[in-house]
Amino acid sequence: MDRARSTGHDDSTPPSAERLFTRAFISLSVAELAYFTAVGTAIFALPLFVTGPLGLDEAAAGIAFGAFAVSALVLRPFAGRLSDRIGRRPLLVGGALLAASCLALTAAASDLVVVIALRLVAGVAEAAFFVAGFAALADIAPAQRMGEALSYNSLGLYLGIALGPPLGEFLLANGGHVATWLGAAALALFAAGLATVVGETRSTGPRPDGPRRLIHRPAIPISIGFLASLAAVGGFMAFASLHATRVGIPNPSLALFAYGAIVVFCRIAFARVPDRLPSLPLAAASLVAIGLGLLVAAGWASPWGFFTGIALMAVGITFSTPAFFSAVFATASPSERGIASGTASAALDLGLGVGPILLGFVAAPYGIPWAFALAAAIALVGALWTVGLMRRAPAPA
After folding, report:
1. What sign does the CA torsion over 263, 268, 270, 274 have?
2. Alpha-carbon gap, residue 313 to 372, rounded angstroms
3. In the chain, what are the domains?
4. What pTM value is reported for the model?
5. What are 45-78's pLDDT values in tens digits?
6. Is residue 74 a contact partner of residue 128, using CB atoms and an 8 Å limit?
7. Phi-psi region of 143 (alpha: psi -120 to 50; beta: other; left: phi over 0)
8. Is the pLDDT of residue 365 over 80?
9. CB-CB contact of 162 with 33 (8 Å)
10. 156-199 pLDDT, tens digit each
11. Mean confidence (pLDDT) of the chain
12. Three state DSSP letters for the chain
């Protein structure tokens, strides 16, 4: 396989040669917007719920935030394989419905054990919805516009992170914690309805007769670099609202709103960049930007310093997900897209789960700036790892 294909970039066909904005693509993207707006609402509300009504500390907030990773990490490979066997739509609809149930039940949680249990079940929903969503996107998108498709499609994730926190803050101020969790549940329920419109995108061709693998091995080295970016950003998201209040930002949701809004703007403005640049160098540069942003946020304890760091992180994350997933899907045939998505997205559970837990144990005794500094170190080590991957191309699909 040539270098261009191994990095998700091929100059032989113009990126605009095939149609991207189909009914299925738009329906999938809007469903993901609704789902991740619910997630964004929970990202804002959960640490305040744990440290407020439950009366616990930052370490408990980190554990609650990342608990979903345990079940999601275990189940993502199975979700990937299942999506290749029975299709994408059952997992999209079922995952969104399960998420709605968990969010609604959190409103009645009275202690940390119940919250953790619900977060574990939410991990099942996350595994099903996210893996099936990425596999469906790979089915729908023209091969020469995969990076652009990932850029546009992932707007749902970052618009959700941008819009969810202000929505959560509004609901919290006007209806309390119960209204916040029920509002998030309603969004997840809406996502389930939209997922039915997408239709089944899985190829109807013959399935492979070989062993039923759960892990796509060529994706593992690439996913390690992806993991570093998510662990770093996961630490930021877990403690952004708390840190915002401590550096003097009047509305703490503005931190996550600014992060999501910058990513959304850059994803739209530079949507075709991932198809025009080699994936792994772009991914390494993204990790450097994330690390520098976290260092600025850690060392400049003021609203301006925090927002400057957020801007640098947002620019980095703009390109990291399209770059890493383009590299991963370049190693997978159509019948392997589910397990490839499951393997790569397992980094989400480790990054967004273990990252906040680890950084929570740093933030509790030493303060959030030290947690951000550790997150920066993780991102920069990930950049070095990704640079090392440039010397060898991923295995052919």
Report:
1. positive
2. 12
3. 22-201+215-389 (1.20.1250.20)
4. 0.66
5. 888 887 777 767 767 777 777 777 777 777 777 7
6. no
7. alpha
8. no
9. no
10. 777 787 788 888 888 988 888 888 989 999 999 999 988 888 77
11. 77
12. CCHHHHCCCCCCCCCCCCCCCCHHHHHHHHHHHHHHHHHHHHHHHHHHHHHCCCCCCHHHHHHHHHCHHHHHHHHHHHHHHHHHHHCCHHHHHHHHHHHHHHHHHHCCCCCHHHHHHHHHHHHHHHHHHHHHHHHHHHHHCCHHHHHHHHHHHCHHHHHHHHHHHHHHHHHHHHHHHHHHHHHHHHHHHHHHHHHHHHCCCCCCCCCCCCCCCCCCHHHHHHHHHHHHHHHHHHHHHHHHHHHHHHCCCCCCHHHHHHHHHHHHHHHHHCCCHHHHCCHHHHHHHHHHHHHHHHHHHHHCCCHHHHHHHHHHHHHHHHHHHHHHHHHHHCCCCHHHHHHHHHHHHHHHHHHHHHHHHHHHHHHHHHCHHHHHHHHHHHHHHHHHHHHHHCCCCCCCC
Which pLDDT tens digit goes with each residue over 6-19?
A: 443 444 444 444 77
Question: Which single residue is written with the structure tokens 């060392």?
Answer: 299
* Distance, CA of 232 to CA of 234 (rounded, Å): 5
In the chain, the N- to C-terminal Cα span, in Å, equals: 9
Residue tagged 């809007």 (tokens): 30
**Cα 12 to Cα 97: distance, rounded to the nearest angstrom:** 42
Among 308, 295, 309, smallest CA distance to 369 is for 295
pLDDT at 397 > cutoff 70: no
Separation of alpha carbons 396 and 94, rounded Å: 33
